[in-house]
Amino acid sequence: MNRLPSDFALCNLSRRGFLKGVGATGALVLAASWGWQQAFAEEQKFGADGMPHGWVDDPKVYVSIAGDGSVTVICNRSEMGQGVRTSLSMVVADELEADWAQVKVRQAPGDEARFGNQDTDGSRSMRHWYEPMRRCGAAARTMLEQAAAAQWQVPPSECRAQLHKVVHTPSGRELGYGALAAAAAALAVPARDGLRLKQPSEFRYIGKEATRAIDGQDIVNGRAVYGADVHFEGMLFAAVARPPVYGGKVKSVDDSAALKVPGVIKVMPIDGRPLPSEFQPLGGVAVVASNTWAAIKGRDALKIEWEDGVNAGYNSVEYRKELEAAAQKPGKVVRSTGNPDEAMNAAQSSLEATYYLPHLAQAPMEPMVAVARFLDGRCEAWAPSQAPQVTRERIAERLGIGFDQVTVNVTLLGGGFGRKSKPDFILEAAILAKAFPGKAVRVQWTREDDIHHSYFHTVSAEYLKAGLNEDGMPAAWLHRTVAPSITALFAPGMNHEGAFELGMGFTNMAYAIPNVRLENPEAAAHTRVGWYRSVSNIPHGFAIQSFVDELAHKAGQDPLKYQLKLLGPDRQIDPRTLSEEWNYGESPERYPIDTGRMRAVLETAAKAAGWGRSLPKGRGLGLAMHYSFVTYVAAVIEVEVKDDGTLIVHQADIAVDCGPQINPERIRSQFEGACVMGLGNAVLGEISFKDGKVQQDNFHMYEVARMSLAPKQVQVHLVTPPGEVPLGGVGEPGVPPIAPALCNAIFAATGKRIRNLPVRYQLQGWQQAGA
């Protein structure tokens, strides 16, 4: 039996204009097109320096209305629990005046020519697609009204779409969308500037709380298709033994025992590529079998001698010392304001601190898995991918076939967090499929594979020093960030962080400090470093927000009042004046850094948490704020630390200003999840290396937050910004303020300052509550 998601039955649509035609069933089909050249020029002008492919958007987001009235939205963004399939469909349905019960969604395959950039990362799906999808729905609504007017021979101004039908206002006559679809499809599409978009007071779904998840029922009852659910008759299964050290390769292999395992069909090599590896497989030896268990047992039976290569000496303990030593020395200056040396020397007093954060693994609940089939010079893949376009390109390059000969179908993702934006695991399946023409081959990673061979979040040391005035406020600020860069994946010698990494809470630090110098000393990568939920905002946010709390206590001031004073007067800052050109790929005119909005979330979170109230011994409140992905977030966390080191997180209050709130329920769920993930990172998370090898291999060693660590109560407070502002990101901004808020709360509770993560090493006799 073959099991494939019905989502893959896509319409065969051309690129000619906005209106794409009428199918055999008389369906109305539209696409929103958001000027590719214009978007490309703007994104390139403002950066994404060091990111492969840039931020190129040419949206081809399709909407169809069938003869039975059902509306189908084709979603070009990968669904990994963030709710993008629901949120984008809500936007279309609202402008279309569609009945939500008659709306469904299909997933787009990887196809840049039809759907634009499909990299689902950077918390930008709704930022980039909200307006095009509104226009798409509004255009369809207008055409349905025009079709009804023509049928009734009345002026279009007398016709109004109302909940899946068009009503002739004077007479009360009605026609359903299904009855009008074919006629509407034959009409010219209204010009973009002629569309009537709804006023917020007219919204039916946008900004409302009760909209049902569009595919929630399928997920709950098991009909939803994730990567491991794709199945074909006669499918083969593979497990791969990969080099334990980044850059290693097979020296020799004895496969005799593996070939004796029942079900094993073949043992074959997968070639790695010279470093840096980019998104290519690590190489190794694959065992292909008739079932997953046989493939894994066959892999276990392999006797492989590895040649570990240049990274065999990578040891976390020694490398930490290297990073911290580098942080004590001057590095590449990436921002300088005023005269920081003179101000530092003239300061009444000073404070300095070094913070350390280890590697992390994304560890999504669904390990890597992919299915591929090769036949007649074509390759088709099915996988939980965040980047189907990149995947197509790499498969074509690796197999030596044309780009148009590759199809990548996107399943649902059981979590992504940046890991599934890299297609190495899908390439493994494609390489093996070519060796078995006509057969589907599934490569299944185990949890141990996933943790050993991730694209890890970077390790970092952060050194900060402030020269203080008599009032305890900083007159001078020095910050050095030292971390291996993601850019090291793509070229040798990339030992400085890219502009996009530095722009994540470092170069765009917006405190009102007159004399600032920011430096980035060199750090070499000895493993694969990749994107992780909120990326470099994690170390930058932890260091800065911890340090500001230290400054407040040194000055004898309340941390909340100190933070507000340090923000300075409300103002809008052009990020380019801070030596920050990237700005998350957004226009600095549309997205200035607004300290008034930052102040508002800080005050909101503090008020909700009851900041300043007296607490019993062993309890404390800590606060932190952070701006990332053009969204403003503040967190206040209440903890209790018992005498034996037991840590209890009682409450977290998180205030968010992400601009217009399209799907409030999903916004809250994203920040609730980010809170728990941030706590897990801070308290438990650590990937360590010895002799180039990862020392953790499953959740008993690489721990993530469990229920006992999660706050007893998480409250997410959505802050409405003043005036009209564009959308901000939601998926990632909730992570960075959690670790510093937690550690600041632990200091308030115990007087112990935590500068190094994970926290579990810092609390004597530490244990989780309920563990």
From TrEMBL:
It comes from the Bacteria. Keywords: Signal. InterPro entries: Ald_Oxase/Xan_DH_a/b (IPR000674), AldOxase/xan_DH_MoCoBD1 (IPR008274), AldOxase/xan_DH_MoCoBD2 (IPR046867), AldOxase/xan_DH_Mopterin-bd_sf (IPR037165), N-heterocyclic_Hydroxylase (IPR052516), OxRdtase_Mopterin-bd_su_IorB (IPR012368), TAT_signal (IPR006311), TAT_signal_bac_arc (IPR019546). GO terms for molecular function: oxidoreductase activity. Residues 221-310 form the Aldehyde oxidase/xanthine dehydrogenase a/b hammerhead domain. The keyword Lyase does not apply. PROSITE patterns: TAT. It holds the Pfam family MoCoBD_2. This is Acylaldehyde oxidase. It comes from Pseudomonas protegens.
